[in-house]
Amino acid sequence: METSDRILKRATVAFGESGYDATSLDDLARTLDIRKQSILYHYASKELLLEACVRQAITDLSVALDEAIRKSSYGWERIESIVKRVFRLANNRPELLGLLREVTRLGPPILTYAVDGIRPLLDGATTWLIEEMKAGRVRKSEPELLVLSAYSTIMGAATEVKLFEALGEESTIRDVAIRRKELLRFLKIALIP
Amino acid sequence: METSDRILKRATVAFGESGYDATSLDDLARTLDIRKQSILYHYASKELLLEACVRQAITDLSVALDEAIRKSSYGWERIESIVKRVFRLANNRPELLGLLREVTRLGPPILTYAVDGIRPLLDGATTWLIEEMKAGRVRKSEPELLVLSAYSTIMGAATEVKLFEALGEESTIRDVAIRRKELLRFLKIALIP
DNA sequence: ACCATTGCCTACCAAGTGGTAGAAATAGAG
DNA sequence: CTCTATTTCTACCACTTGGTAGGCAATGGT
């Protein structure tokens, strides 16, 4: 694999799991078994590296969601498909969701940058929801708020694993599956008329 | 006000809003118009300062929730009362919820410490929910999971303000009230039989 | 009057930070 | 082989970090 890609991948993990400020370029270089200056050759500054990570993360996220959307039809089935895909993502690549959360914590300018990348996804979801509401397949309410609520709910359920573990809740695949099932039941009751 | 209390308050805000790593003791001292060494006089290390902040935050949180519980009766009314109280808290003292989230990000040892403080609250909520389910006032499901889901949902709705703003969603008192109402509607449909 | 304690300070330090300058290796093209 | 461009490196640097050592004024008990 290309060095620059290796850097990008590890940086995304580090930024997403440990946070931007807690990750030093020296640490990062050490885990990659290269020197810090090699990182700075491919990405001129730490901030630009973060930007590249965010760009890639959003791309990956978009691809995953598109996939979930394409292989589902309408109404509840599609919501279920998306939730399942996000949970799988949270399991396979927790750093992606972690990075998104970290970015909202860091605020501008990187947040503004990320938001521009995510907005198409949210807009798509919103217009789709409006359609579904019109068709009577989803309970009528404010679609923008619903999308954002769903975002934070799914995000919370998918990323709060560390908290769960600290609380003694196990996090085997089975336990995560149970939580997913509960969330789906919850969403179904609340969303479907 | 006592110097040590001023430090504690500012530190909670800084840790909760900007994050632990992004907050230097020098910065903190500067905003308090004292010297860093005065901070280290009252709190022997940065980590101990964080611990003190967490302890105080959990106390404040407990007080607020107890209040919400005491002035409500049972079933839906109590849930509504708690959600409203948390939203008020997120509005008046966003740093409290921010600090909690930051702590789950930092992981052990501080997370373990915080969890010990919060567990009584969660246990209380869980046993209460079990009662309510028995009495048929709340839809039957896994109470532990329900508590944690509710936690992350409310937390998300209450703290994702920065994201909302970046997305162009206004965050006037009225808008927050609308989001609160939507969340309550959502919870009511999902929880009440 | 004495002295110990409290509270805040100045002065300093070792370790680490992101970043610069420029030398050495590597490799493909003519 | 030689020239050139790409990549990685060593050697630094200015600055910030959390933390130590110790001084100095105020306070209050004896």
- What's the helix-strand series of chain A? HHHHHHHHHH
- State the CATH topology of the domain at 57-191 in chain A: Tetracycline Repressor, domain 2
N- and C-termini, Cα separation of chain A? 49 Å
Shape of chain A: globular
Tell me, rounded to a whole number, the average pLDDT of chain A. Answer: 90
Radius of gyration of chain A: 18 Å
The major pleated sheet of chain A works out as:
none
The largest interface is: A-B, 42 and 42 residues
CATH superfamily of the domain at 57-191 in chain A: Tetracycline Repressor, domain 2
Percent of residues of chain A in helical segments? over 70%
List keywords for this structure.
homodimer, about 190 residues, mainly alpha, Tetracycline Repressor, domain 2, 10 helices, DNA-binding
Q: What do these coordinates show?
A:
The structure is a homodimer of 193-residue chains. Chain A is mostly helical. The first copy, chain A, has a domain of 135 residues: Tetracycline Repressor, domain 2 (Orthogonal Bundle), CATH 1.10.357.10. Chain A has 10 helices and no strands. In chain A, helix 1 packs across helix 2 and helix 4 runs parallel beside helix 7. The longest helix of chain A has 25 residues. Chain A is globular and about 60 Å long. The termini of chain A are far apart. In chain A, 33% of the residues are buried. At the A-B interface, helix 7, helix 8, helix 9 and helix 10 of A face helix 7, helix 8, helix 9 and helix 10 of B. Chain A binds a DNA duplex (30 and 30 nucleotides) through helix 3.
